[in-house]
Amino acid sequence: MGTWFIICLISLIVIKSLIGFIRGEKGRFGPRMLESQFSFEIFYTLLITYGIVIIGFGMIYFILSFDQAILIENGEHRDVGVLGSLIHSVYFSGVTLLTIGYGDITPIGVGRLIALIEALIGYVLPTAFVLRLVQYSNREREY
After folding, report:
1. Measured between alpha carbons, how far is 11 from 73 in angstroms, rounded to an integer?
2. In this structure, what CATH number is given to the domain that contains residue 92?
3. Whether residue 77 sits in one domain with residue 27
4. What residues make up the domain containing 8?
């Protein structure tokens, strides 16, 4: 009973802090006051960019699947229809970009190189947006 109470209390504190961060409220952290910076413009741009990359790489996997099998599920090639292939391609693209894969669908052949490039983009994108947010924050402080 006590463990659940502590978990709920910590969850509420984290949720309250996150909501405050998004609203741009100032929070206390140690002896200094921290000003939170949240840019909806950068956040929406990040979401749209991720969506475009997932759909774009999904289409690459989908188009290449017509010529040859580049994605196999659970170690074997499955014949699925056009819609099934499209769903598998976009799912694999999203999982590769966001989590580096679960292992349920694996690439073979040239698909491995494409998945490697997509995973690299998945690592670089957040860094680029964090740097943009820092740059945006520094520019606001100057004015």
Report:
1. 37
2. 1.10.287
3. no
4. 2-37
- Counting DSSP H helices and E strands in the chain, the numbers are 4, 4
How many domains does the structure of the chain reveal? 2
Instruction: Give the chain's radius of gyration (CA, Å).
Output: 21
The residue length of the chain stands at 143
Amino acid letter, 2: G
Backbone angles phi, psi at 106, to 5 degrees: -125, 145
Supply the pTM of this predicted model. Answer: 0.69
User: What values do phi and psi take at 123, rounded to 5?
Assistant: -80, -35
64 and 18 together in one domain: no
Q: What tokens appear for 114 in the block? A: 């494409």
What does DSSP assign to residue 28? E
Per-residue pLDDT tens listing for the chain (143 residues): 567 677 766 767 767 765 665 665 555 544 444 455 566 777 788 889 899 999 999 999 999 888 887 888 877 777 788 898 899 999 999 999 998 777 888 888 888 899 999 999 998 888 888 887 777 777 777 76
